[in-house]
Structure formats: structure tokens, C-alpha cells
Design brief:
single chain, alpha/beta, Isopropylmalate Dehydrogenase, 2 domains, 19% strand
Length: 356
């Protein structure tokens, strides 16, 4: 097949891990007879420096025209001072909104060979396999914002339609997995959460009676993710809660560098990115973990291009590389040798070549 992929390397380690994912996509295209047009565009802090804005019109137009968007990481101290007039994160929010990418999927599983990389006991994290579904274009991040010298406010708003569409996505995923859905809110305090809980309960009873629904307050969810993570299947929540809880859940797997994400809308086009940040402290050293970005490329193959076999082959190649001992610095035990970004990807490509 032929596909156009808009590539937004971003800032910090973003270009470094994106380069490794592009190597993997090129290998998939070669092995399976596809043609991927991979074109890079400025985004985030790099775009602010080049064009004065984090999401230039040409970049957005390319993303709208593409079959999928592959994104690195954005931001850094250079653009994050309280006095900054424009920030890289504004470009990310605008991109999600412009493409209608309202559902953020973040799978979290624990590789048996990396149990020691987690700070939790192996008995707690063994067998963890969960999926977060985070609402991505509503809530406090997109609400009206005000600030003066004396006070500031951020408005959190959700509509019935916004809650229904994200819960449907989560319930459909749960139906294809273990048929358990946990809806996370703060209904004991927030009116938006009370609406969320009421709408979720009504929709699940009407459309997904075969999926077991549990409501859970966000503070309890934060605790149980560490206490009994194996009990969760699919978790759905609003924007800010999802942002925080998914970073917490990443520690189950041992490192932020391992986990991918897919941001999807009503069509097939999606935005794919690792969940980690730009890590400016290690940028330019060639040691960043590329696995989360490579796995994001696998999600791109599956969800936007419909290439399930190719996606599975790439995921299995990452799994084989890790099982074979490929460890970047964030995964290596004290005193254990580690691989740089390119060498870790070499291990993935070696396994992919054998599978292809």
C-alpha cells in the first residue's frame, strides 16, 4: 500500500527517537512491499524558533493531508519560562483539536524480562496488561483561561456528547479484551465528574450491558494502580486525570521510554507519539530509549493504515530485542552495560528482518 505520514520530530530527544522509528517504518515498507512517504515538518519549540509559532500553517496542512502523524516530543526549558508568550504545548493542543483526535489510547504491559526495572515488587506487576483511554480535546486544558496579578482560573467543561464518545471507544476496547471497564472521576467534588459518572452509567447500561463497569475516584485509582494494577483492564477518564495517571502507570513497565500512545478521532487518521517528554538533559547524547516511539509506529500501522500483521511483527521484534538483552540506559540495572538509541534499534531491526 501507499501511505503518507507527516513526521514531527519536535524538540530535545524527539528527533533522535523519531529517526529510529523511521528506520523501522522503512524496514517494514521494504519487507512487506509498501510505500511510505515520510516527510518531516517543524513543530513545537523548534517551530517557535523557526517560525514564531509551535504549529505553523504548513505543518498543520501537511498533517490534515496525511494518513497519519508520527510525533516525537516537544518542549524544554528554553520555551517554558512563566514569561513565555507562546509555548510548544499550545501547538500540541491545537493539533489534537484540529485533527479531532479526542481519544488517547495508552497501553501498559510489563515485559517479564524487565520486571526488575520497575520500582514495584515483581509479584505486584506480574501479568499487568491494561489500556488507558484518555479524553484528549476537552476539560480543563481546553477551557477558558484567565490570569491577572492577583488570581488565575482554568475552566473545566465537558458535554454529554464528549463523554459519550470517549466512553464508547473505551467500552468497545473492553469488549474485545476482558470486558471490564473502570471509569475514573472525582464525582464527590466536581460537577463535571458527576456528569461524567451519570452519562457513563447510562450509556454502559444501554449499549454495553456485557461489559462490567466500575466507577472509581481518581485518588483511589492512583492508589490501586500501585497496589493492585493487575486487576485493571480498560480505564477511561478525562483529560487532566488521564495525563497524570498514565505517567504513573508507565512506572509499572519500568520506564517512560517504553510506552507508546495513539490519539484517534472519528476517522482513521491518528497522531502517534511516545508518552515521554523531550528529556533535554540527555538530548544529543544518543542514549534515549527508542522503544516507545517504535511501538507508537506499530500503533500507527495498526490503527491508521490497517496493517495488523506488520504492526504485530514490529511489536514482536521489540519484544524479542528486549528478551535478547537490549537495554538502554533507563532500563539497565546498576553496573549493567547499556545500548544507545541506534544499537537498541539495530536489535529490533535484526529481529524484524528474521520475521519478514
Amino acid at each position: 500500500m501507499r501511505a503518507t505520514i507527516a513526521v514531527l520530530p519536535g524538540d530535545g530527544i524527539g528527533p533522535e527517537v523519531i529517526a529510529q522509528a523511521l528506520r523501522c517504518l522503512a524496514a517494514v515498507a521494504r519487507l512487506y512491499g509498501h510505500e511510505f512517504a515520510l516527510t518531516e515538518y517543524p513543530f513545537g519549540g523548534a517551530a517557535i524558533d523557526a517560525a514564531g509559532e509551535p504549529l505553523p500553517a504548513a505543518t498543520l496542512a501537511a498533517c490534515r493531508a496525511a494518513d497519519a502523524v508520527l510525533l516525537g516530543a516537544i518542549g524544554g526549558p528554553k520555551w517554558s519560562s512563566p514569561q513565555a508568550q507562546v509555548r510548544p504545548e499550545e501547538g500540541l493542543l491545537a493539533l489534537r483539536s484540529a485533527l479531532g483526535a479526542f481519544a488517547n489510547l495508552r497501553p501498559v504491559s510489563v515485559h517479564p524480562a524487565l520486571a526488575a526495572a520497575s520500582t514495584l515488587k515483581p509479584a505486584v506487576i506480574e501479568g499487568v496488561d491494561l489500556m488507558f483511554v484518555r479524553e484528549l480535546t476537552g476539560g480543563i486544558y481546553f477551557g477558558e483561561k484567565r490570569r491577572d496579578e492577583q488570581q488565575a482560573s482554568d475552566l473545566c467543561v465537558y458535554s454529554v456528547a464528549e463523554v459519550e464518545r470517549i466512553v464508547r471507544v473505551a467500552a468497545q476496547l473492553a469488549r474485545a479484551r476482558r470486558r471490564r471497564l473502570t471509569s475514573i472521576d472525582k464525582a464527590n467534588v466536581l460537577e463535571t465528574s458527576r456528569l461524567w459518572r451519570a452519562v457513563t452509567g447510562r450509556l454502559m447500561a444501554a449499549e454495553f450491558p456485557d461489559v462490567a463497569l466500575e466507577h472509581m475516584l481518581v485518588d483511589a485509582a492512583a492508589m490501586h494502580l500501585i497496589r493492585r494494577p493487575r486487576d485493571f483492564d480498560v480505564l477511561v477518564t478525562e483529560n487532566m486525570f488521564g495525563d497524570i495517571l498514565t505517567d504513573e502507570a508507565s512506572m509499572l513497565a519500568g520506564s517512560l521510554g517504553l510506552l507508546p500512545s495513539a490519539s484517534l478521532g472519528a476517522g482513521r487518521r491518528g497522531i502517534y507519539e511516545p508518552i515521554h517528554g523531550s528529556a533535554p538533559d540527555i538530548a544529543g547524547r544518543g542514549i534515549a530509549n527508542p522503544f516507545g516511539t517504535i511501538m507508537s509506529a506499530a500503533l500507527l500501522l495498526r490503527h491508521s493504515l490497517g496493517l495488523d500483521a506488520e504492526a504485530l511483527a514490529l511489536e514482536q521484534a521489540v519484544d524479542a530485542a528486549i528478551s535478547g538483552g537490549a537495554r538502554t540506559a533507563d532500563l539497565a540495572a546498576p553496573g549493567e552495560p547499556s545500548l544507545g538509541s541506534q544499537a537498541a534499534t539495530d536489535a529490533v531491526l535484526s529481529s524484524l528482518q528474521r520475521r519478514g
